[in-house]
Amino acid sequence: xxxxxxxxVVVIGAGAVGENAADRIVRGGLSAVLVEADLVGGECSYxxxxxxxxxxxxGTALKEARSLAGSREAVTGxxxxxAVLERRNSFTSNWDDAGQAEWVAGAGIDLVRxxxxxxxxxxxxxxxxxxxxxxxxxxxxxxxxTGSSPAVPPIEGLDTVDFWGTRDATSxxxxxxxxxxxxxxxxxxxxxxxxxxxxxxxxxxxxxGILGSFPEPARALxxxxxxxxxxEVRTSASPASVGKADDGGVEVTLEGGGTVTGDRLxxxxxxxxxxxxxxxxxxxxxxxxxDTDDSGRVAGIDGGWLYAVGDAAGKALLTHQGKYExxxxxxxxxxxxxxxxxxxxxDAWSRFTATADRFAVPQVVFxxxxxxxxxxxxxQARADGINASETSLDIAVAGSALYADDYRGWAQMVVDxxxxxxxxxxxxxxxxxxxxxxxxxxxxxxxxxxRLWHAVPAYPTISEVWLRxxxxxxx
Length: 475
Known about the structure:
alpha/beta; FAD/NAD(P)-binding domain; Enolase-like, domain 1; 3 domains; five-stranded mixed β-barrel; 20 strands
């Protein structure tokens, strides 16, 4: 059975990014159809941000209690694994998206469940879950918000064993006795620590070390924290092949010799835009990467009606950044439909552009200790032609001493010396994620250092590290 429908905008993908795009479009006075083949709410709600942090937080809270004289004496037990998993389940609504679908309806957005593909200019075909074929014609735009999919490495034998991706690890109902993790990125190290604290013996195989985008002192503190929880971190370890072990588990053979065996294997080696099967070929586009401007508009499309946001756009594969892009794109589409002044070719800091994607992207690794960074590292700044300097120090202020006995942390700021503004900030240590937004504001707002000096940190908080950084810099 074939049906037709018309709307102002079609948004393909009902994760957090697609929801934000559709919401801004409707708020702007247009109609929108949101198409989703899986759960409404997407990866972040059910298999990424929320469940992974729910798995991590109880262990961190227990560690915090044990880090202070007076409270550590009151701690008599270990983590209750069943309770941790049940709390994780509550954050995913037990993988039931009824609440999210209710929000979509309440926002005035039309939800269609099915798999969508582009068939022509502003034309979308949906194979619905009920077995119908629905042709949707968009008057103004189509937005791709399809997220990303795991990048599976070409390791010999990997296709012959049952291995976990991050989805499996964040939704697992049991904790394996032994877990081998291939990959030292954010998801790999976060899940390694979560499972170690829940009772797994964990080995991380990180060919290029862990958290390669962060400065070395931050990486070292995270590695130290992992090892304190019993995680064996093997840097420069490269898997040559994978196979079934004699005991029924999985055996990883390393290049240069040696093997590692686990009951479960987690492969966490990055993600790539999920663009396959969308019909991009019908528009003359390759289903690998898309070239988009700051408003999300895809290059090479006559009439400029196709947009991509979030992981699908391939810029910053982070939920918060994707939602930011979606807000800009949704506003731009609605404004362009009404031919609002300034929307066709918006200025850099217009609400129709995701300008911060270029140089003010914040990211947090929720391990214990945490690592948080926004903007550029010193090396990145200099590679971009900036006359940059760095100032760094250990976090050792009254607030950190009160936060935990034997607190260890590190902070760095990268300064554009020609403009005397911050272009990068990194923190590592317990609780430092809450420092990051102040750094993000300073970078996005291009606050002059002489003015930043007058932003007085409250005493006694860890934020006093800002004062110490500026003092060491020479203010």
